[in-house]
Design brief:
The chain is an alpha/beta fold. It has a single domain (3-217), classed as Rossmann fold (3-Layer(aba) Sandwich). Helices cover 41% and strands 16% of the residues. It has helices at residues 15-28, 52-60, 66-69, 80-86, 93-106, 129-136, 150-163, 182-192, 210-217, and strands at residues 3-8, 33-36, 110-118, 140-144, 168-174, 198-201. Helix 1 (15-28) packs parallel to helix 2 (52-60), helix 1 packs across helix 9 (210-217) and helix 5 (93-106) crosses helix 6 (129-136).
C-alpha cells in the first residue's frame, strides 16, 4: 500500500485525530510515513499547532513540514471552494488530482492523504472528495462518528465509496461527544459492515491506533 486516503462520513468527525494516531503507531513500528492534505480551509496561521496541518506535522516528528503537508490553505472555515473564492482563487479537480499523484509518486513509504470534510463534501464548485478519491484510486480509511444517526451516515458513505469502485481498507468509529454507548454503536455497525474491519476510537488523546497500524502492515 503506497497511499491511504483518510475520509469521513461527515465534517469534524475525527479524521485528523485518527490520522495522527495512525502516523504515531506506524512510526513506532519503524515504517516510513508522510501526510498530505490537498485542501485546508479554516486555517489560522497564528495557531499552527491546532491546525490539521500542524497536528499532522507534529505526529510526523517534523513540525516545520506543515506548509508542505497542506499547500492549498484558506482562512475561512467554510467549504474549500467557498473559502478559496473569498481569497480570489478557484479550485480545479484536475489540479488537485495532479497534486495528489505527484505526492504519491514522490512519497517514501506510506502517504496518508486526508480529505476535507466528508465523502461528498465539495472540493471544487463541481467536484467532491469522492471524485478526488476515485481519480487517485488509493484505498480508503473511513472515519465515522458514534452520534445518533451516525450508522446511517456511515453506511451511506460506504455505499458511495464502493459504488465508485474504491477499496475500503478499514472503518474507524470515532466516539462523538455526548453520544450513545460506543461499544454498542460499534457493534451495530459491525453487524452491517462485514467487508472491512471496524475499529473503535474512544474520545481522548490516550487512544492509540496500534491495531489499525498492524492491519496496515499485515
Amino acid at each position: 500500500m503506497a497511499a491511504l486516503f483518510v475520509t469521513g462520513a461527515g465534517t469534524d468527525i475525527g479524521k485528523t485525530h485518527v490520522a495522527c494516531a495512525l502516523i504515531t503507531a506506524l512510526r513506532a513500528r519503524g515504517m516510513a510515513v508522510d501526510a498530505f492534505k490537498p485542501v485546508l480551509s479554516g486555517f489560522d496561521p497564528n495557531d499552527l499547532a491546532s491546525s490539521d496541518a500542524g497536528r499532522l506535522a507534529a505526529a510526523l516528528g517534523r513540525p516545520e513540514a506543515w506548509a508542505a503537508i497542506a499547500p492549498r490553505r484558506f482562512r475561512a472555515p467554510l467549504s474549500p471552494p467557498t473559502a478559496a473564492a473569498l481569497e480570489g482563487e478557484t479550485l480545479a479537480l484536475d489540479d488537485l488530482v495532479a497534486d495528489g499523484r505527484a505526492r504519491m509518486g514522490a512519497a517514501d513509504g506510506l502517504l496518508l492523504i486526508e480529505g476535507a470534510g466528508g465523502v461528498m463534501s465539495p472540493l471544487t464548485e463541481t467536484a467532491t472528495n469522492l471524485d478526488l478519491m476515485a481519480a487517485l484510486r488509493a484505498p480508503v480509511l473511513l472515519v465515522v462518528g458514534s452520534y445518533l444517526g451516525a450508522l446511517s451516515h456511515a453506511l451511506t458513505a460506504l455505499v458511495a465509496l464502493r459504488a465508485r469502485g474504491l477499496t475500503v481498507a478499514a472503518v474507524v468509529m470515532s466516539e462523538s461527544q455526548n453520544a450513545p454507548d460506543l461499544d454498542q454503536t460499534g457493534a451495530s455497525l459491525k453487524a452491517f459492515e462485514t467487508e472491512a474491519p471496524v475499529f473503535l476510537a474512544p474520545r481522548g488523546a490516550a487512544w492509540t491506533a496500534d491495531a489499525l497500524a498492524d492491519l496496515i502492515l499485515a
